[in-house]
Structures are given as C-alpha cells and as structure tokens.
C-alpha cells in the first residue's frame, strides 16, 4: 500500500482539530493511556522540521500544535495534576518506554 503525504497530512490536521476540541483531555491523561501527549507531537514536529533542514524552536512547534502560545493554553486549560493522575503517570512510565 502506498502512503500519501497528503493523506497523512489530512489525518494529522484532523488529530490536531480533535485535540483542540477536547481540551478537557489533559496531557497527563494522554501520557497515561497513550504514551504521548500534545508536547510530544510538538517535539516530533520540530524534529521533522530539523530533518528537513528547517529551524523551528520548541515554543514555535508547541504553538503550531496548541494553536496558541503554550503558556496561554496551559493557563486556560491545564489544571495541576491530581495525586491520582501522578500515580497513574508513574505507573504508565514503566509500560511506555
């Protein structure tokens, strides 16, 4: 099966739109269940840019993923992790290398 960059890009845009619509889903919850979060996506995006010879800072990559500066998004949508989330995150780190 041939992979299409256009299809992959469309799927990625849909993932970003889905995450944007689900701001209630916290990064720590994504990390616990999936082993990745919005910050991981930003890191992967930045790494892909670097591999393509393009300079992109961590903050620029996060703004592309979050749709606004990360500090603003975090202040609006990311409460402190609960003790239960932190415990689940610690346990998940052992499952997700």
Automatic annotation (TrEMBL):
Highest taxon of source: Bacteria
Region (Disordered): 76-97
InterPro entries on file: SMc04008-like_domain, SMc04008-like_sf
Occurrences of domain SMc04008-like (ranges): 25-90
One Pfam family this sequence matches: DUF1244
Protein name: SMc04008-like domain-containing protein
Organism: Arenimonas oryziterrae DSM 21050 = YC6267
